[in-house]
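In response to the reviewer comment on reproducibility (Comment 2.3), we provide here a single inverse folding case reported in full, input and output, so that an independent group could reproduce the run without further information from us. The structure tokens appear first.
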């Protein structure tokens, strides 16, 4: 069980980094052409950290739930 949760955490973290790094880069790129944008990098970092944390927790939760469902539905004795 512990191995599945660790794999879920790693998968969630990797997905979070990938998606939210893309989001931050795209936001920054769009913001460079606008006149009214944050003057500092802190909002981008906060969105990145919040998003990565949420996807990591979702990965752990999904791995835990799926493992429990697998154990519940297992029919081989």
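Designed residues, in position order:
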């Amino acid at each position: 069980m512990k191995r599945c949760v660790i794999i879920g955490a790693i998968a969630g973290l990797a997905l979070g980094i990938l998606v939210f790094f893309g989001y931050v880069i795209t936001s920054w790129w769009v913001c460079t052409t606008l006149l009214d944008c944050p003057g500092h990098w802190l909002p981008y970092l906060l969105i990145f950290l919040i998003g990565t944390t949420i996807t990591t927790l979702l990965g752990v939760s999904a791995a835990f739930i799926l493992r429990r469902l697998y154990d519940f539905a297992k029919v081989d004795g």
